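Escalation from tier 1.

The customer reports that the assembly of two entities below gives different structure tokens on two consecutive runs. Tier 1 could not reproduce it. I'm attaching the input and our single run for tier 2 to review.
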Amino acid sequence: MKRKIYILILILAFFSIIAIGCSGTSTETGGKESKSDKVLIVRSGGDPMSFNPDTIADDNAYAIVQNIFNRLVKLDASKQIIPDLAKDWEVSDDGLAITFHLKDNAKWHDGKPVTSKDVKYTFDTIKENKTYYFNSRLDIVNSIEVPDDHTVVFKLNDPDVSFIADLGWYATFILPEHVFNNGQSWEDNPASKEPIGSGPFKFSEFKQGVNISLIPNKDYHDGEPKLDKLVFSIIPDEQTAIQALINGEIDVYENVPSSSVDQMKANGKIRMALNEYPSPARIIFNLKNETLADVHLRKAIATAINKEEISKKVYNGVQVPEYSMYPSLIDWAANTEEVSPQFNIVEAKKILENAGYKKDANGFYVTGITLDVFEGSGYPDMANLMKATLAEAGIGIELKVSEFNAWNQKVSVERDFMIEMQGGFMGPDPAALAKRYGTGVGSNYGEYSNPKFDELTAKGAATGDQEMRAQYYKEAQTLLAEDLPFVPIVTYAGYDANNAAYVNLPIDGAGKWGWQEYTYTDIQ
Amino acid sequence: MKKYVTRRVFMGLLTIFVVFTINFIIIRLAPGDPISTIMGKDNDDPILRTALEEKYGFDKPMITQYAIYLKNALTGDLGISIIYNKEVMAMITERIVPTLLLVLTAAILAVIIGTLMGMYAAKNEGSKIDVIFSGAAYIFNSMPAFWLGLILIIIFSSVLGLLPSYGMINTRDAHTGFDYILDVIVHMVLPVCTLVLVEIPIYFRIAKSSILQVTNEDFIVTLRATGMSERKIFNKYILRNAILPTITIFGISLAYLITGVALIETVFAWPGTGSLMLTAINQRDYPTLMGIYLIMSISVAVVMVLVDIVYATFDPRIRF
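Tier 1 run:
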């Protein structure tokens, strides 16, 4: 008898949980939509950290906020700068003033006009708060002036045209002053949870761990979006997301794993488009390390890496070998003549012999070099292939594979490594070279320092003339190819898999619309 | 009985405290910190790092951080997630309902089906069905659950097109009322099946072996000698004794299931506490992790105490 009662209680508990679970959310979902609505579902890997796009740089929020907010300028699918809120801009002759002219018909989602005061408010606030992502980049800005409602002038301490490109990257979205300027910090401001922007879509609903829904902004200054609803659906697992796309449960999946590319290309309902990023995978040498401080050894290592094999075996040929010291994707700035060495084991040995290295009993010239790699992105596989060819050349490498956070702690915080492997964005402007390899800068993990390189990159940032800039940066790359503080391995590229029924997706918009912007997306 | 219960409850509380302290230390010993997550993958700005460390109190000594956290936790304040700037308690309550729904459904189905199968196999030991059941139990028990989940998605969603592959509700067409409940049930089928398939073998084997064991006890032989009907012997004497281990296992697995289904939740994009925990680990979101671990250790402790009490009711010998 007792047992029956227990079972009965358990069953009752079970049904009451179903009832609670259902009643809790069913009231929120509003009216049922008809099937003919154009609902575009985009796969998202995880929850956004915040809907305030300027406090932190968050990849999960980045795609979403690009559709709610505007920046002064933005990046398109080819990772070039195009106008956003600013219709055009000019740099003064001395390079110390950058003037942006804003579009005059832009409005916030609550109907108020977007003015230059909002721009000033946004950047002034970032400048005051050390914890905001763009704060240190604003050190170069002396003051922001607003001569009229649609003109903003950035007065700089030093000439730096790459500042314009950085305004189209993370954490530079223009926020409404009338909403945010109420004495609360941006983090605690309720407006950071229910954002009001000026972008093509309005925020509708966020269900933690489930999805984020946006609805079109009918008054958008560049035209009303064609979609009826834009949903970012959170699917952490890549394989599940692939199945969901095949089943038509989602429509857009940016950057599918290269192992699934062939299978998806064969599917007629899916349109595959290659999306390239200026973020090559590279190995970086710790120049504070005595062994690696020797440029001959670095050259030998660079010569003993088979980039072709890595590209084919690890990335199915999707990510191709990169020899240029600045991503060849940004073709106007990449130096394709002075590049990192071609694969040649005999040559690598010769370099070592000439530099006076002696073979030990096992045939190794050098041993005990460690390579720190984090899990994922095919990096450990890449490192293993490198280890094999390096061993052939008589260079003994030991792999240290760890989870990303542990790797980050060791490499970027403690700087405790000999060689490390990483990716990372090198755009939108070649000024990124100075941010990665300039003397004493934060992301220069290998602590490379070459005064001539610093001088050239400084010159490149100080002029607005693209031809001159290209020349300075190409010279700087010649130095990098000689010194080899790092070796580029393969480019970063991935296929965007989209529902073939849709046109004008972000990938189709080079020169026209933003990299993750869905304003013009429509059913064919 | 009263003394027994008091002792158990006290032990439970002590366990929670010890686990809490160990968690606090272990989480901070792991390399990496939430600051790196907030700063973004492509950035290492020392000024920004110092400013953020100060803001979240990581510049204070660890013992001070512990004291502050313990004090807050005792008043029921689990703090605010560093990553999401949201109350941890609110985040967990939001996510625990889908998990309980998934876990309880699966656990109850698995315990019923598994035990029935075990009973049948024990009664007909050595029969063809027993061999099939036992073989299948081995296969499913050794199968990684997340892999099985993915295979079920490929078969039932992609190939047959019968069931949705991810989530708890249909994203394209939002439903309300009864349709909503139906929608949730449809979405539950695959994850629940995965869990049930993986859990059944445990209950099957426990039920089968403990029934077999009890059947061979002397008192059963005596009962048989009295001429009592086999049916009565089985239902009244064998089953009552043999069901005890099942209760223990059910309790324990229920407690662990709250976070133990993390991989299943990730595969099916189910918005539960398990996937919240995995994300929090990857982002080193200390407050969220501590909150989840605390809830988890409390639930394990509570279930253990309950199991002990239920056990004591079924089997009075235990109290002494």
